Amino acid sequence: MKVTGIALALAIAAASAAAVVPPSSAEPLQALLDRAEALRSSDPREFSATLRQVEALTASATADQLEQLQYLRAYELAYSGRFDDAIVQARTLFEASDDPGIRLRAGALAVNSLAATRDFAEGLRQLDRTLELVERVPDPELRSHAWFAASALYTQIGQFALASHYADRVLVASRDPRSHCFAGQQKLEAEYQNFLASEPDVVIRPPSPAEIEETIAACDALGETIVTSFSRSLLARVHEQQGGRAEAMAILEDNLAAIEGTRYPRLIGEVHSLLARLYFENGDDARATQHAREALARSSEMAFSLPLVQAHETLYRVAERRGDFAAAFDHYRRYAQADKAYLDAVKARELAFQAVRQETEEKNRTIQRLDDQNRLLQLEQKVAQQAARNTQLLVALLLVLLTVIVYWAWKTKRTQMVFRRMAELDALTRSSNRHHFTRSAELTLDRCQRDGEAVAMVMFDLDEFKSINDRFGHGVGDWVLRQVADACRGCIRRADLLGRIGGEEFAVLLPGATAAEGIVLAEKCREALHRIDTQSTGRDFRISGSFGVADTLRAGFDFNKLLASADAAMYAAKRGGRDRVAVFTPDLDGMSPP
């Protein structure tokens, strides 16, 4: 829709509101959605106000408009810093929508939000799934969402060449000035960071002030204050790096009001910490202290923030220069803690990239191996048809096949050793998977039998879990499973073993415990499920479970018998009305599920 069309639709909506008459078609609603899209990064307050207007008209919305609204709500959550909620909503939309375009946008938003919560490994996995949709989306402007998310994520994890590559893809494919604004700034930032990270003997040119000023002018004309402010921060850093401290300070001071007006904590903290360092190096301790404290106030919620490190360092150096060694020691201690947290975060980002890259390479190798095997089978068929003329080729192919098998056998064994620990855990809940739970439980039962110790088993199943999945989607269902596992981990002892043994079935093995102690634990877990707050999913529902308890005094030390006894007790709890604890008795032996 053109700008004039948006203005006309908004005028119609305003006139309808003044007359207290609801809209008679979907056009005003779509106009408001288009307006919200245009405002979402340039004017956050007006964007939120427009969303509230849209929400008042949802009764007349189409399915596509409701999905667009769900995406914008998730965007609003992310912009306001509620990244966990944004991730849930964006991923729910990503899984539920049939529209590749809206799925790609939701996936890109989930990538950005996961990066903001420092979950880089999951962010990279989500990025892979999102980039798979690019070929199904013909619109280059929609494709740019995925490429820009890739550029932003790779910048954060220190893969600056990849970040620059994906920013270039946006610049080449998109004709939208706004996309060029965002991608241009991201490319300049990646080039600057690549310059800083380069080895001394490697010649890499940083972006020039003229290039940055060109991007600033383009973004400023679009009203993209946040992107413009990030670019000005970059311009100040480049000037400082080239010896222009005065120019850097002037740029930041002249635009400080606009930067603070964005209400974006990361950006504001970065600018204040930079100003603090510049004023300190200029000999102005008072203003250095003022800006450093402002940076701390803006960055206090970001434990891995570089502005937090730089602000503490400035305060430490100011106190040292003043001779206030008590304050200097205190600030140095805080600086050291913040610096360690930041360096740990950098290392975690690098490890996450390497781990996910290994996962991806292993998947690609598996696919390549299957392709190789298929090609070899085809060649073998041809060899069988022309055996007389192709004997030498057949021998060569068999040697290649043997080499491939030996190589992949060695590679697979090596990979299994590296990821052995990962194979023991359920990827969703981070509790023991069924195989590892069974193996560990059998070893524990053997040991306890030798030592004459009792063992209790608690097994539970979530009530009406299929209904949660059917009503709210598998994204919410996965969230429930994670919350349940976390809640139960808070109840068990260190020696106890928690495992996910089925879709929504969990079990806890309690060495050295009887059924009475198992009942106590089961009640704790049952009450913990009640306390799980589901509001963050955007849904209001209750979580409960049915628990069964058995011990070796009645069921013996055979794992399968003990598990079957706890299972029978659990189904007795379900028959008794759910959300309760039942204990195994001999009369339950062999009883089938309801």
UniProtKB/TrEMBL annotation:
Annotated signal sequence range: 1-26
Domain GGDEF: 453-586
UniProt keyword Lipid metabolism, yes or no: no
Keywords, comma-separated and alphabetical: Coiled coil, Membrane, Signal, Transmembrane, Transmembrane helix
Membrane-spanning segments: 393-410
Domain of life where this protein originates: Bacteria
Coiled coil: 353-387
Needed co-factor(s): Mg(2+)
Catalysed reaction, written as an equation: 2 GTP = 3',3'-c-di-GMP + 2 diphosphate
Record SUPFAM superfamilies: Nucleotide cyclase, TPR-like
GO terms of biological process kind: cell adhesion involved in single-species biofilm formation; negative regulation of bacterial-type flagellum-dependent cell motility
GO CC terms in record: plasma membrane
GO terms of molecular function: diguanylate cyclase activity
E.C. numbers: 2.7.7.65
Gene3D superfamilies linked: 3.30.70.270, Tetratricopeptide repeat domain (1.25.40.10)
InterPro entries: Diguanylate_Cyclase, GGDEF_dom, Nucleotide_cyclase, Rev_trsase/Diguanyl_cyclase, TPR-like_helical_dom_sf
Protein name according to UniProt: diguanylate cyclase
Organism, as annotated: Arenimonas composti TR7-09 = DSM 18010
